Amino acid sequence: MSIWEKMLNLDRRWIFLLIGIACVVPFFTPLGLPILPSQEVVSIYDYMENLTTDNAIFVGFDFDPGTAAENMPMGVAVLRHAFARHIPVFITAYGPLGQGMAAMALDEITDEESDDYYVYVNWEDWASIREQGITDRAGIEEAWIAAGNTLSENAHGWVFEGRDVAFLGYLPYFHLVILGMSSSIASQYPTDIGGTPLEEMPMYQEHKSLRDIDLAVTTAGSSACVAWITYGREKIGLPVAFGVTAVMATDYYIYIQSGQIIGQMGGLRGAAEYETLLLRDGYTKSPGKAFVGMDVQSIAHLLIIFLVVLGNIAFFAGGFNKKTKLKGRR
Question: Model's pTM, two decimal places?
Answer without folding.
Answer: 0.87
